[in-house]
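# step 3/5: fold
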Amino acid sequence: MNLYDIGNNSEHIVTIANSGDLEIDFYIYAQNFYEAAENVTHYLMEEAAKNQDIAKLDLWCYSMIYLYRQSLELLLKASIFQTITNNIDRKRVISNIRHDLKQAYEKIIEIKGLTIGDNKNAKWLMEYLSNISFIDRKSDMFRYPFGNNRELLFKKQTSISLVAIYDNMNKAYSIIKDIYDMGCFFEQEIKSYKPQLIIEEGYYYQTSVVSYQYLPYAFFPYYSSYEEVGRFLKSVIITQKKTNLFIPMCYLYRNAIELGLKRLIIEDSHIDSSKAFKIIRNKKHSILGLWNSIIDEVKKYVNMPDDITLDNLQQYIKAFHNFDKSSDLFRYPCDKDMSPYFIEPKKLDIENVAFCFEELCNFLAYVSSILNEIKDYEADMMVNMKDCYGIIL
């Protein structure tokens, strides 16, 4: 396993190279995440709806909405960097804003001297971003089933209109892009739905039903969403030669691995639930840290396939951890200190990188199935023992 391997007959090579100009790089990342979201949305509203593919309609929504949301965040920050050019000031502002879209928009209005006034687009955007920040200020709602305090991010089963998501995200992106391109608000009102992230209406096969009341803390829907949409973007990149979608694809795969590891700890392991939640909170995005928290369970219960040893697997995990330690490499063009990523051009084999991600996802799914079988067997044994005890009495 080598994430950097390029085969002699490789046909799909991408060169990642950021400019180091963070304003431009954030803008380019915003475009790429937006285009990735558009590809997923069109597939869901056209192919999946036509084929009545409920599984994709329900599961892919998580990663699709995250891609849109991330494009808005990147574009807002690109616009901020147009005016704030000193890296020390940029770091201070971004540290305060973090993932809060409303706060980023308010900062743009302040530093660019804009006035919302009676402009309907500007007022709508403020309400829309305020709604997103109210329910998803930390950008976690469509990445994880619960927050650091174990609070569920979806309180109930929810049916989300894909058409409303599409229209509203397009309107928001267009308004922010106008600010970036022209430094002002577009005067003609852009029609859309009411300024809310989640709108529960629409044709049945153009909606996504998210959250499960009987499995409120389940990682599986999120894991499946990110892994499957990563595969989908890989096919778009290869068949349509859209190499600009490589970064969003890698982020989806990377988050799938993190979700897969957290799924093992929370859902499949014998670790006490309070301790399991504490591990998740402390290890955060660390692939290696999460793996080390579950490795004893794997050693005890899981027989490795013939071609895999635990030492090899450990090296595999370390390689992914070193590839992106903080889960930022494929979300932003720089780290928290404003130091740019990929200043030195990096050539990667698209199919090889995707294959490596998919291999680890497959293994995590394998481990999950084994641990689940064991827990089910143990639960059955406990029921049988209770039944026997009752008969004896």
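# step 4/5: annotate
The chain has a mean pLDDT of 91.
# step 5/5: archive (pending)
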